[in-house]
Amino acid sequence: MTETQQIEIPRGHVVITTYGPVTAETMVSYGDMRVRAHSLGLNNVVWNVVHGHLVDKARNEAVQQMLADPQAKWLWFIDADMSFKPDLIDKMLSTAFSMCPWADIVGGWCPLRGEPYLPTIDTGTGTWEPIAPHDGPKEVIRTGAACVLVKRHVYEKMQPPWYGVRPAPRPLDMLYEFDNYCNIKFDGKNPFLKYSEWNKLLQCATDEGGQANGYTTVGEDSSFCDRAKALGFRIVVQTDAVCNHIDRRTITPEDHLNAMKERRKRIRAAAGIME
Question: Can the peptide bond before residue 161 be classed as cis, meaning omega within 30 degrees of 0?
Answer without folding.
Answer: yes
